[in-house]
Amino acid sequence: MPDLMNKHVLVIGGGVAGLEAAGRLSKAGIQVTLVEMKEATGGHVVDWYKLFPDRKDSMEVKKYLDELVSADNIHILTGTTVSEFHKNHSHFNILTNKGKELLADAVVVATGFDLFNSSRKEEYGYGIYDNVITSADLEKMFRLGKITMADGSVPKKVGMVHCVGSRDEKVGNLYCSKLCCVTAVKQAIEIKEHISDSKVFCFYMDMRMGGAHYEELYREAQEEWGVTFIRGKVSEASESIDHKIIVKVEDTLAGRPLKMELDLLVLMAGMEMSAGGKSMAELGNFKRGENRFFESSDHHFGSNTGNIEGVFYAGTCTAPMNITETISHARSAVAEVTEYLKPKGN
Fold first, then answer.
1. How far apart are CA 346 and CA 338, in angstroms?
2. pLDDT value of position 154
3. In this predicted structure, what is the pLDDT of residue 2?
4. CATH 3.50.50.60 occupies which residues in the chain?
5. 104 forms bridges with which residues in the sheet?
6. Are 146 and 172 in contact (CB under 8 A)?
7. Measured distance CA(86)–CA(266) in Å, rounded
8. Residue 284: how many CB atoms within 10 A of its CB?
């Protein structure tokens, strides 16, 4: 598109959505600058081992994204944040923390999400008991090829708590993070793959398996791997004298309380608006919704736009999404940007 070759777009965030958006904008002939606060791009995808539902290695996604942004008309600035953000008529004036001034015709905000800090749920003992970990901690073990307790021994009884930091009035997150259930199912299977004689228990409020092949994965976990699913909320976790984790659960299907001793307790941490997103909301006066993510102009046909003309949203800065949805959302943001940048009358 020759009309777009003299246009410049700033992409804020170098995770899946930001990289996808930058790569697709580049293919449209647009000059792109991408700023990423960390020293490397990739976002959360580099923290995961295998991805649901097909168990693809996350590094395959990272490789795809790296190849996508290898074009000459993409300039990537890592270790960089936006310190000033102003709209001047049809252009944006941006200053970075490193003193670099940028002038952009449009902006794509792809600041992603942060995992809920599980230490805020003190009743589960994260940060207090060594053998209480998060789903992200477990992914690191999968990548290393070994699941161990704090003393280096192999756990034989593992519990997984769903909805940690989601659907929880006490922490102010009423929304469902959408991916915790399927992450628990995937990780339960992987634990059984690594430790064949282990017993794995998933404590859930409701199983929300809304995605292609998610329900099939759930059935596989039960029928082929013997994972036990207990409908009930963990009310408390404590530690025994021999460092076992003791959980108290209300089994709502059986209508009775349970007390169980586990070797390892894994917390399925939910998703929250990222710190970078919060900063951009303040700098750019972007509206945020009840879930505190960026508020789209319309849930049906304006999910990539907000309250500032020329600013477009991509990915999980607007709501929890899986990687497939994030890539699709980034591509739709690019379509919105290219339409916006077209000379009027075309």
1. 12
2. 97
3. 55
4. 2-112+274-341, 118-270
5. 92
6. no
7. 43
8. 22
| Angle, in degrees to the nearest 10, between helices 58-68 and 16-27 | 30
Q: How far apart are the first and last CA of the chain?
A: 12
What is the token pair recorded at 42?
């990739």
Strands 264-269 and 132-134: parallel
Query: How many H helices and E strands in the chain?
Result: 7, 20
Ramachandran bin of 200, using left for φ above 0, alpha for ψ from -120 to 50, beta for the remaining angles:
beta
Q: Yes or no: say if 30 and 5 are a contact pair by the CB < 8 Å rule.
A: yes
Distance set, CA 213 to CA 139, 184, 197 (Å): 21, 15, 26
Class of domain 2-112+274-341: alpha beta
Q: Pick from 75, 79, 12, 66: which is nearest to 39 by CA? A: 79
Query: In 3-state terms, what secondary structure has residue 318?
Result: coil
* Ramachandran area for residue 274 (φ above 0: left; ψ -120 to 50: alpha; else beta): beta
Give yes or no for a contact between 294 and 282, defined as CB atoms under 8 angstroms apart.
no
Instruction: Report d(CA 160, CA 177) in Å as an integer.
Output: 16
Token pair for residue 52? Answer: 């649901």
Rounded Cα distance between 85 and 93, Å, is 6
Amino acid 345: pLDDT: 60
The pLDDT score that the predictor gives to residue 316 is: 98
Count of all residues that appear for the chain in the document: 346
**CATH class, range 118-270:** alpha beta
Helix or strand run (H / E) with residue 131: none
Q: How far is CA 155 from the centre of its chain?
A: 27
Walking along the chain (346 residues) 10 residues at a time, the average pLDDT comes out as 80 98 96 98 95 93 97 97 94 96 98 97 96 97 96 97 95 94 97 97 94 94 97 94 94 87 98 97 96 95 96 98 97 97 75
